[in-house]
Design brief:
seven-stranded mixed sheet; two-stranded antiparallel sheet; 9 strands; alpha/beta
Amino acid sequence: MESTTIRDRLEYMGLLFAVVPFYYLPRAISLRLGSSLGWFMAHFVPIRRQVAESNIQRAFPEKSRKEVKRIIVRTYQHFGRLVADFIRQDRYVPADMSRLVTPVNQHLLDEALSGKNGVVVLSGHVGNWELCGYWLAAMGYPLHAIHRPQNNPLVSKYMEKKRVAAGGKLISMFASISAFSAILQDGDLLFVLADQDARDRGVFVNFFDIPSSTSRGAAIFAQRLNAPIILVFPIRTPDNNYEFIFEQLDYSASGSGNIAVAILQQYMDRLQYYVRLHPEQYFWFHRRWKTQPVPQKSNDSMAPSLAGAPG
């Protein structure tokens, strides 16, 4: 087991103490508590609030400062509910999943999976992506979710247990190319969230008309292994249940240009559509536009939007 520090252990003990009410109280009360905690943090412990405010202002320049602040508070409340659901999601059996989740166009996923080339399932940090992965596994889909281990190994193990409780599997984002390829070659699902800043390793596509460095791994794997791509947007409804909206991304008609870039632009366009509908359900706390294209030099043969991206 990875070595732990005293700080790791103290953080873990604090986590275990904090999650008790969310885990054991009825779901309605747990979510209400999470929403209240989110409201409190938005006003009194505004962790990364400046980042969120800046991102929302860039995405929605037409909105007033008052509207932006209202979105921010509702965003904290939404993620308070998400955390509450995540803490208790290993209690949810398939019957609970059927009650909480209404899938829309699930047949697209089933049809894609019948092709035996595996399926790349692309989602984003909108709605409740944690419950989405759990639901896919609970419904019997052969799920492999890409994840990033936490710095605290005890906290990381706690989160991993929650994520695999329904039978899904995790694969580290630092795994080998052959490991990712093997998942699709076996006909399984590769569940990917690719909407965070990929630094200089990504390619630039537009998100809210802003160049956004985006990981191209999922697009490359799908293209090379001829695997279909299914988008899923797990949106919370007003009754605190969820609609999981499935869409097929058709990259066979992407033209003769860079297919990976075309795939990722379609993905960003659809994600943007749902974020516009539900701005309070997006994870604005990440510095999505931290990396920007390197200005094109006069002797560059590469388009400015791709400058700095690996070949």
